[in-house]
Amino acid sequence: MKRYLVAGMCSMVKFCLYCMRINLNIAIIKMVPNSTENNALNVTLTTKATRSEIIYKEIPSYAWSEETRQMILSAVYYGYSVSALLGGLVTHRLGGKRVILFSLLSSSILTALIPWSAGVSTDLLIVLRVLDGMAQGLHNPAMLIILANWSVAHERSTLVSITYSGVALAEIICNPLSGWICSAYKLGGWPLSFYTYSTFGAVTAILCIFLIYENPDEDPYISSNEVEYLKSFDTTVGEKNKKISAPWLSILTSSAVWAVVIAFSSNAFGFFFIITEAPIFISEVLKFDVKTIGWLMSILGIVECLFALLSGVCADFIVRRELLTILPTRKLIAICSMGLSAFLLICIGFFQDSAILCLITLILAFGLLGCYNTCFMANVLDITKHYSSVIVGIMTCLASSTGFIGPSLFAALLKKKNTNDQWYLMFKIIAGIQLFGLLIFLLFAKAEEQFHSIEENISKQEMKSYESIKDTE
User: What number of other Cβ atoms are within 10 A of residue 438's Cβ?
Assistant: First the structure.
């Protein structure tokens, strides 16, 4: 079925973009020669005849301070938060496919320029990372409008989960693959990792030209039966969507919109903090070695992917069998996701004497956060298909800002008192924020259409135009 292929291609786009975003987290270890992993940078020992034979490789390295490294790593989130709302507005006018292609191609080009920019100046590298974040921030609203055109209500959770599982797959594959590429000095070391992901992104963009279409009517390869099936549910947003502006006052004063925005941002606060700081926690508090950390981060991604897909399938099964209606189903998944995750994060503090129990609890807590797409992204499509790109732009703008707010808050805690107890305190803070977002979602979330349909809005605008012309006569 073509709609599942479209969701799969959207997942591949997410995979490429996320790999290009997080690859630097691994590569920067090899880019800075003072780190433990780089004590023997640029040196490879051969053992064919004698271990004294040394082959030197001209791989660039830099003497960046810790502050500079953190600035380089966080720069992408500043750009991401700035462009997310713009992505919603542009998608509302131009449609999803063009925005997705621009986002993916721009990010691929900017990623390929990272090795060159690092050699020119640190400031240029930071600027490119900000621009890369801005390019990537455009795609989320565009992707949701594509899904709005291709999904029906009782399949929506599954298609959204398939699409956003690309993030988890990137975590599973990118961490160990980047580590291997960056250590392959004979192949060129860390610069090759950026060229690899940028090439894959460009190839994926070419595939998207032929495999992703704005709506089923434009797709020359879809079967007529599937077109009729989707039309029977009125899935397509349509060209009229581009002719009118979004009802901003209605959107910004809607309790249903703010419920999903606050819940999504609360979820993102924990998600971004764990994905960013988990390697340090596992290394410094749980005392695992560096080689093991890459694989443990992949396990985090595997568990997240499993929960994301399972929650989507279960939600659609519940709705299809009419065990619950859509809104109670969304709230049930939210409770299982944010509620259980918050409980597990609090429990980590009680398992301080067992590194294994702490690790298992952290993995499960993070995995449960992966259900957010079934709850929140799907809920945006519940309350409005026509303006979903605008609302996702608002959501992504606020949520991505937590990518630098969380680490900044934690840095302030460590500056006050640098002990392991601060880690457990931070996990409790994350749990509290998640429970707050969950409570707002349970109280104010809705699943009915919240805004006038496109046709109604156009009719009103046409009536106003007619009345104004009549008055002039």
Answer: 23
